[in-house]
Specification:
This protein has 415 residues and is of the alpha+beta class. The protein contains six helices and 27 strands. Strand 8 and strand 9 (129-132) form a beta hairpin. It is elongated and about 95 Å long. It binds adenosine monophosphate (AMP) and magnesium ion.
Length: 415
């Protein structure tokens, strides 16, 4: 290890800063736009042509020479001769002259000579004539060419997150493929002699490797691709073999084995493999043993084994790293912090800065946080339905109902 294990644990913000400054952008790939929802664009997209490509009608109605309709009203309509019909998709074949009208549908190109469109509701068809009962303004109901997008303008830029509007706009610009950030692969490595898989029979002393499943889901939710490796037994040889395989991924995340127990081999094995360790403890609860470093060119995060600690540390440290790598806007790397009112009195040990799992709801114009009763770092069920982590600084032992507290949102409380 390049850092003495005797160094004091880092504050959360400092650990986050170190991780984020270490992470480099991931590579790119070219994908059909239908597969880019939630991806980050990595190219500038210049509009190849105007959208819409021609002046067109904003209404179903009649293309007219606006001046012809001057003074028209319901009782004194102006009669025009209908010389054509333009459904959307058809191009005008004849120009329009004074005294004439062309029936036109929304989106159809505007015929030469037209200076306004009168909506159908203000007209009355009568054989080859139409009576217009309103005075049409110059340009009325004509959508000009390029109103939406002007040819040559940079409509989308590197760093834009592709959602429905962006993908629709790409399609409108005839872009069926775009260059986006790759989804980083994240090797997930659960360590522990006590671990079994969910479909293995229960056995004395054994527990289910739930972390690998929770972590794989967190990776997917963060936009990455999980690569779960087989359970790693608590032996240095098994660990080294597994970490070597994990190096094929863009990130490595392990759970367990980073503490100071007799069988916690992650640190010594990584040291032997040449890890450039940045830190190995963070001053927080849940958590504390949390290792971060670069193994060759691969970021390695050693998460604590306790199921809640694993999830909370992933959300506070790994997800931000993945987001930075994928090129998301900097303001969205870390989970957002909001102010909420405590729903009830809260007590905690206060021996470290503490993140308390809580239900967060929106009520009467503000967030309300309901702290889960069981806050042990092994109580995974306390994460069920938790939208936030209520933050208590070190030394803060109690919170009173109604008190305003800071809450780190770990899920969208409106979904
Ligand atoms: P460790 O960090 O390896 O000392 O593990 C701390 C606690 O987390 C122990 O109670 C482990 O049994 C538990 N634990 C470790 N890994 C996992 C896992 N993959 N799934 C569920 N619990 C785990
Ligand atoms: Mg262990």
């Amino acid at each position: 290890m390049s850092q003495s294990p005797n160094l004091a644990p880092l504050p959360v913000a400092e650990a986050q800063r170190i991780i984020l400054e270490t992470i480099a952008p991931i590579g790119v790939e070219r994908l059909p736009i239908t597969e880019t929802v939630g991806r980050v664009l990595r190219e500038m997209v210049i509009a190849p042509a105007d959208i819409p490509p021609h002046d067109n009608s904003a209404m179903d109605g009649y293309a007219v020479v606006a001046a012809d309709s001057a003074g028209a009203e319901a009782e004194t309509p102006v009669r025009l001769r209908v010389i054509g019909d333009l459904p959307a998709g058809r191009v005008p074949s004849v120009p329009l002259s004074s005294g004439q009208a062309i029936r036109i549908m929304t989106g159809a190109p505007i015929p030469v000579g037209t200076t306004g469109v009168v909506m159908v509701e203000r007209t009355k068809a009568d054989g080859e004539f139409v009576d217009v009962s309103v005075s049409v303004r110059e340009g009325e109901n004509i959508r000009p060419r390029g109103e939406d997008v002007t040819a040559g303008s940079a409509i989308l830029n590197p760093g834009d997150v592709l959602r429905a509007a962006e993908i629709g706009t790409l399609a409108a610009m005839r872009r069926s493929f775009v260059t986006v950030s790759r989804a980083p692969t994240v090797a997930i490595l659960a360590t522990g002699d006590e671990l079994t898989e969910p479909d293995e029979p229960a056995a004395p002393g054994k527990i289910v490797n739930s972390n690998a499943y929770a972590l794989a889901a967190l990776v997917r939710e963060a936009g990455g691709t999980p690569r779960t490796l087989p359970i790693v037994r608590d032996s240095p040889e098994a660990l080294e073999l597994s970490i070597s395989e994990a190096l094929a991924a863009d990130f490595i995340v392990s759970s367990g084995g980073v503490s100071v127990g007799d069988y916690d081999y992650v640190k010594p094995v990584l040291a032997k493999m040449g890890l450039d360790a940045k830190f190995w403890r963070v001053w927080m609860k849940p958590g504390k043993p949390l290792l971060f470093g670069m193994l060759q060119d691969t970021p390695y995060v050693g998460l604590p084994g306790n199921p809640v600690s694993t999830m909370v540390c992933f959300l506070l440290f790994v997800r931000p790293a993945l987001r930075k790598a994928m090129g998301f806007p900097e303001a969205t790397w870390l989970p957002p912090t909001v102010t909420a009112k405590l729903a009830a009195d809260v007590k905690t040990k206060a021996d470290r800065p503490t993140y308390l799992r809580a239900r967060v709801t929106w009520s009467d114009g503000g967030f309300v946080a309901r702290v889960m009763p069981a806050q042990g770092s092994g109580v995974l069920s306390s994460m069920l339905g938790a939208e936030g982590l209520v933050f208590f600084e070190e030394g803060k032992k109690t919170g009173a109902a109604g008190e305003e507290v800071k809450v780190v949102l770990i899920r969208n409380p409106f979904e």
